[in-house]
Amino acid sequence: MLCKRLASTSAWTLPPTIRQLLSSGHEIGNRVQVNGWVKSVRRQKNVTFAVINDGSCAAGLQAVLHNSQLKGVTNGASIRVFGSLVDSRGKGQAKELQVDSIDVLGECDPEMYPIQKQALQVDYLRDHAHLRARTDTSAAILRLRDSLMKALHRFYEKHDFCYVHTPILTSSDCEGAGETFRVTSSSCPSDSPYSPSEVADAQSAEFFSKPAYLTVSSQLHLEALASSLARVYTLSPCFRAERSQTNRHLAEFWMLEAEWAWTRNINDVCNLVEACVKDALAFGNNEEGERRVLAKGVSGYEERLRSLEDVKGPEPWARMTYTEAIAELEKYSASAASKAHPFQFEPMWGRTLQSEHERWLSEVLIKGPVFVTDYPSTLKPFYMRSNDDERTVACFDLLVPHIGELAGGSLREERLDPLRSRMTALGLDTKGEEYGWYLDLRKFGTAPHGGFGLGFERLVSWVSAIENVRECISMPRWVRKMLL
What we know:
The protein is an alpha+beta fold. The chain has two domains: 28-113, CATH 2.40.50.140; 134-187 and 203-482, BirA Bifunctional Protein, domain 2 (2-Layer Sandwich), CATH 3.30.930.10. It has 14 helices and 18 strands. The chain has helices spanning 2-10, 18-22, 122-127, 136-158, 196-204, 219-229, 266-283, 288-297, 301-311, 322-333, 355-365, 416-425, 433-443, 456-464, and strands at 31-43, 47-53, 61-66, 78-87, 95-106, 162-163, 169-170, 182-183, 212-214, 231-239, 252-261, 318-321, 370-373, 395-400, 404-412, 449-455, 477-478, 481-482. An eight-stranded mixed sheet has the order 6-10-11-16-15-14-13-12. A five-stranded mixed beta barrel has the order 1-2-3-5-4. A three-stranded antiparallel sheet has the order 7-9-8, with no helix packed on it. Helix 4 (136-158) crosses helix 7, helix 4 crosses helix 8 (288-297) and helix 4 (136-158) packs across helix 14. The radius of gyration is 27 Å and the shape is elongated. It starts with a helix and ends with a strand.
């Protein structure tokens, strides 16, 4: 009996999606079932044309219905239709569905429906995040996310990286910036059957016996795994209590992070990042239907597509040191051209590059992506490997036009004594539980290694020409704003 059940299950399949039906693999004349939401209704004398979309692609399937079948068929309603796939006699679609029968599964009052057909403001859609994906542009962005993510996974699988899952709860602040969310338990010890003394102990104790935080980066955990698996990566959520109200920051975002052993040169890390981003640009944004939707709904999208054609070509991306970048910024700041467009923050060696500096380097000076390497050690976290000059560290930021910083990475300090000295100088605990394990990695079979982190929403923003990363994720969270 069990064998028979397994055999019958192996032949099971889902009904085809509209994307599959519109592909060349489905023959004209076949009777099919289509599930979806009504996007538009156009009534004529004898028949009505309803465009159905199931979210599988940008295109909808035009369904031809008898006027007697229209009860409940309104914009936004969910329906199931049965009919024959035929060649379309109208313009704009190759196939259409001659409907035999229809079931309205979920009615939608057209007067009350918040997602009307006219253009809707960004802030309005943010306030209706639960329905935002019903709009063509938002749905296209989510499918673009899916496409880019699949392309990144394919790239790292091809290069024999192991995809790993790292903790969301952590006891350390990887970046050392203090922008963490602290996690507490919602359980109420006073409702428990414990004695008063036990309740007092429970109320004063941490759930994990020490403070816990939402992760700001998976890097330290990835380093631990890379010390055994050699090549590891993750694409997972990160959380930062970032109060910036810019178009580049979210409190919850996704980050691609990779670590691998045996690399000794920061240029190798840059090469990997460049290769994976170019691969994602080539294979993660090639759906013609999605491009048409974004071209219609996003200002500047077609121009962005043209600029990305040059970016993903064989020409290597520009590279310059932080010192060289500061020299170029200072030169511009002292020039006559800067009088019309001055920097708000004066560039100076030893200071952080501001967003305006990053965009000037990528948009004006280089006119494309640029890796800025070898920053002063005082500007970077403790784990980055010191260069021979002992003033700078072997690191990079990848700057791209319209975004600024897209990715950042470094060689990690694999030598025990320099790492411990650096941590001690910064007041970090080198003997306790918080970082003692990190030093253990240098005591037992340490190996040269490096890695990076890439902001996934920023990649989506760059590819799509969407100006704000809040539109590049399904349910955005930022300071003082968390719906759903």
